[in-house]
Design goal:
By secondary structure, this protein is mainly α. It is built from nine helices and no strands. Helix 2 runs parallel beside helix 9, helix 3 packs antiparallel against helix 9 and helix 8 packs across helix 9 (about 215-275).
């Protein structure tokens, strides 16, 4: 009996339209590159900012440079992930070139989407460090909230119930309790838009008793501090809004770069495969 050899095409050449292993590989590569670039950018940012006056770059320049760097990070990392996804996907046999182009684009987009989800879960700490550096006003606002007591919404009202008679001097012997109470008053008042008159008078009375200032000078100091806090919080809000817009632009740029790079990777993959077949 004579046995004839039969050549059978490999199942990989007739794979499904979506190659999830290639997408996962591209997403992991993009996430890892994002982490590396964020760590590098954080180090460069810290070296560019100087604690001494009239040295280093200004806060506004630092914010712009950070936003531009986020764009570069999104471009490089997403392009790498998209290229890996396109290059590693299995070859599609008997598919029109337009369909191949669409599938490669979809592979790059899915790799970018998966990398974005991974980044949201595991790279949030690194991104928040850069965002915190770009928005210095956010840190003081967070510290005020953290020192406002236990964090319960009822703290302010409990303190108001236990507040001494206005005719008597506030108890300033316990500096920690006084700081916590004033922090609660300022947090609620600034959050509502302004500190109420009775609260403002009580804070001024506590400041006068603690510092020895006259009532007029203490009231002026309280007003100046409240105005400064409002200005800092407003600047922090504006910086956060600008950062959100830059992050949106960076994400969209990353999606485009990943999709485009995936088509390039797919073209190289098919070209090399055609040389092997030939």
């Amino acid at each position: 009996m004579v046995f004839e050899s039969v050549e059978i095409s490999t199942p990989a050449e007739e794979s499904l339209p979506v190659s999830w292993p290639a997408i996962a590989a591209g997403a992991i590569a993009a996430a890892a590159m994002t982490l590396v670039l964020l760590a590098f950018g954080a180090g460069m940012g810290f070296s560019a900012v100087s604690p001494w006056g009239n040295s280093g770059i200004s806060a506004s320049t630092f914010q712009i440079s950070t936003a531009l760097y986020l764009m570069v990070v999104a471009l490089l990392a997403s392009a790498l992930g998209g290229y890996v996804a396109g290059r590693l996907r299995t070859r599609w046999v008997g598919v029109h070139t337009h369909e191949v182009f669409f599938r490669d684009t979809a592979h790059g987009f899915l790799a970018w989407a998966l990398a974005t989800v991974i980044g949201a879960g595991f790279l949030a700490a690194a991104a928040s460090n850069i965002a915190g550096g770009a928005s210095p006003g956010l840190a003081p606002a967070a510290n005020v909230s953290a020192t406002a007591g236990t964090g319960s919404p009822l703290d302010y009202y409990v303190d108001a119930l236990l507040r001494p008679n206005p005719a008597a001097s506030p108890n300033t012997t316990d500096l920690g309790a006084t700081r916590r109470e004033i922090a609660g008053i300022l947090t609620k008042g600034i959050g509502d838009g302004d500190v109420a008159g009775p609260d403002r008078a009580y804070v001024a009375q506590a400041v006068a008793a603690r510092t020895g200032l006259s009532p007029a000078d203490a009231d002026k100091r309280v007003s100046n501090v409240i105005d400064q806090a409002k200005t800092d919080l407003d600047n922090a809000r504006k910086a956060a809004a600008k950062l959100s817009l830059w992050l949106t632009a960076a994400l969209l740029l990353g999606a485009f770069a990943a999709s485009l790079a995936a088509t390039r990777g797919g073209n190289v993959r098919d070209f090399n495969a055609s040389l092997t077949d030939g």
